[in-house]
Amino acid sequence: MCGIFGFIPGSNETASDVVDTCIKGLKQLEYRGYDSAGIAGIYKNEMQSCKSVGKIKSLQSAVEFEKLNLDMAIAHTRWATHGGLTNENAHPHFDEKTKLAVVHNGIIENHFELRKKLAAQDIKFYSETDTEVVAKLVSLYYDGDLKAAVQRAAKDIKGSYALALIHQDQPNLIVATARDCPLVLGLDPQTKSIFISSDTNAFLGRSLDVMFVKNEQLACITKHSIILYDAQGNMMDYKLEALGIDLHAITKNGFEHFMLKEIFEQPMTINRTIEGRFSEEFGTAQLGNLAIPTHVFQSAHHILILGCGTSWHAGHIAASMLESLARIPTQAEIASEFRYTNPIVSENTLVIAISQSGETADTLAAVREVQAKGAKVLGICNVKHSTLSRESDSCIYLKAGPEISVCSTKAFTSQLALLSLLTLHLARIRHMEKAQGQEFIRYLKKVPQLIEEVLNQAPKIEKLAKKYAKFEHFFFLGRQYMFPASLEAALKLKEISYLNATGYPAGEMKHGPIALISPDVAVIAMCGNKKTQDKMISNMMEVKSRGGPIMALAPEGNEEIATITEDVIWMPEDICDELACIPYSVAAQLFSYYIAKERNCEIDQPRNLAKSVTVE
Ligand code: M6R
Fold it and tell me: Going by CA atoms, what residue is nearest to atom 4 of ligand 1?
């Protein structure tokens, strides 16, 4: 989390353009955190800065009020890790003479120890952040050479970082360096302006040539020039690559929120995910040239899926699909927990790492762990050029387009679509009959149309959401594939409406949680699994008998469900159990969206969250 940005103008850009460019860049990075923001830079050889608690628009008002002009600058949008949401804790952080400034994404794990050492030398601290330690440490080592001071400080630092630093005495230089955090540099080939950012989103609308700063590398950026050094301090060659980005994808396109726009995009995004990736003739998937050799897929005895949050839910569903259709033992693990289990990974384990952003620190750490144990990692990712896409042995892209809302919607359904193709691929190279593969493709091809049918019910779902918005507690229940789908549905509701929502396996309620059922707890029953339908109905009856109000998402025309529940959202019926999660999840997304709207919540940027979680 946190986004860092930096800018050294090229020809034809003025000092007010610098501030404006940084504010625009930060706005594109705001999804990485929005607790506070700040900017520092050099103007006429003097350090100038401005910080503000809250979103970028409050920093924007502050810089306009102060009529801030800068010749070059570094900037930051914060997701608080160490210390509360105060101006003191906002980045940039400074040395004691306010000659050196730093912005940071990541976590300095030994900040406490370093702070103690520095404090023992009478160095004062003004914030609770880990980052201020970097400012003070680099300043301690500074003797006129910022690069050398940063290189020396990096040796003392444990943890992860993407850093950008400036010093008043070297007014034309930004030093940027990274360890286990993303950092990208962009050069405008026309004006020769140079941009520094946590990700390429900040470059939207510009045709830049870019390069990614790898672990322990350091870049010295001056007017028109980038010099790159390796971990040992040797100058390195590098290549810049042209970046092509679709600007249209980051507008709301008439929708009130990005989340709603992204929900409504799903028929199109699923089409983009599956288009050209299957063969009806052979009843199989065609996933392109994967860098992982076919024999690895053929000989895999075990599949391990890693991910966090929504991506883990997609992995959870895929694990059931892979076991059931491809007959490969599969486990989906929460990446942040997995690392500490002393995992057993053999050469016959295929690892699938799922991440929309490709920057989730927990997922990346787990990937590095299994790679160190010799496993091959297949990344499933939405963001091109992301760390996961670069570090995995092979990567398949969702092609869902930029997902701006912190609450993931279209990425989830594209993950499911892509994972179902991967399942088909693995099933067909093993034992699945062609006809069964063709049948699966028939269902998959229908999914975009089924989503349309759900979206057409948005007015009805909105009405129901208004009714249920008065509840403070929710259970989302499901069985088999619908269980992880209910986890995902509950996550959507809690993250954007701040309501207490729990996803639970319906059959497990009687083993404890049913004690919570009362007229004040809404139960949302996700009845999309044909195989477990009867059992699900029994579980709903058990809830009903205890006075719990139930709303079901159920296959069109199921009269029995209609008699048990207070309300039903009718769902398309002609879909196999494996793929039913997709339209059911779309209905649940709309339901959560409209509840959050009814409760006046901040939908696209919910409190305490960030889109890319780049700390462990
Ligand atoms: O970018 P990733 O898919 O790795 O992100 C993982 C989670 O942080 C993410 O899915 C999170 O749970 C979403 N906010 C859920 O809507």
Answer: 355
Q: Give the least confident one: 336-340, 361-365, 567-571.
A: 336-340
Residue 101 has pLDDT above 60, yes or no: yes
Per-residue pLDDT tens digits for 65-86? 999 999 999 999 999 888 999 9
Cα–Cα distance between 365 and 342 in angstroms, integer?
Answer: 13
The reported pLDDT for the residue numbered 377 is 95
389 lines ligand 1 (CB under 6 A): no
Q: Is the pLDDT of residue 372 over 60?
A: yes
581 catalytic residue (yes or no):
no
Euclidean distance between CA atoms 92 and 101, whole angstroms: 6
Q: Tell which one of 311, 392, 419 to mutate to probe ligand 1, the residue whose CB is within 8 A of the most ligand atoms.
A: 311
Q: Which atom of ligand 1 is nearest to the CA of 611?
A: 14
From the CA of 307, give the closest atom in ligand 1: 4
CB atoms under 10 Å from CB of 400, counted, come to 28
Find out whether 163 and 138 touch, Cβ atoms under 8 Å: no
From the CB of residue 592, how many other CB atoms can be counted at a distance below 10 Å?
Answer: 31
Least confident window among 268-282, 372-386, 454-468: 372-386
Q: 592: Cβ below 6 Å to ligand 1? A: no
pLDDT at 293: 82
What does each C-alpha distance from 80 to 143, 266, 355, 573 come to in angstroms?
31, 32, 22, 45
pTM of the model: 0.84
44 is annotated as an active-site residue: no
Whose alpha carbon is nearest atom 8 of ligand 1? 309
613 lines ligand 1 (CB under 6 A): yes
Q: What is the pLDDT of residue 246?
A: 58
- Answer yes or no: is the C-beta of 308 below 6 A from any ligand 1 atom: yes
| Ligand 1 center from residue 187 Cα (angstroms) | 30
Please spell the DSSP secondary structure of 474-500, one letter per residue: EEEEE-TTHHHHHHHHHHHHHHHH--E
Write out pLDDT tens, residues 217-245.
999 999 989 999 999 999 999 999 887 65
Q: Name the active-site residue from 2, 181, 220, 581.
A: 2
Q: Which is nearest to 280 in space by CA: 448, 420, 439, 428?
A: 439
CA–centroid distance, residue 310 to ligand 1 (Å): 5
Nearest-10 Cα torsion for 160, 166, 170, 176:
40
Is the pLDDT score of 248 beyond 60? no
User: Which residue minimizes the CA distance to atom 7 of ligand 1?
Assistant: 309
Q: Which of the residue ranges 11-25, 418-432, 476-490 would you say has the lowest mean pLDDT?
A: 11-25
CB count in 10 Å sphere of residue 192: 16
Structure token pair of residue 45: 């050889």
Q: What is the pLDDT of residue 211?
A: 94
Largest CA distance in the chain: 79
Strands 36-43 and 72-78: antiparallel
Report how far residue 528's alpha carbon sits from residue 180's, in angstroms, rounded to the nearest whole number: 41
**Ligand 1 binding pocket includes 310 (Cβ within 6 Å):** yes
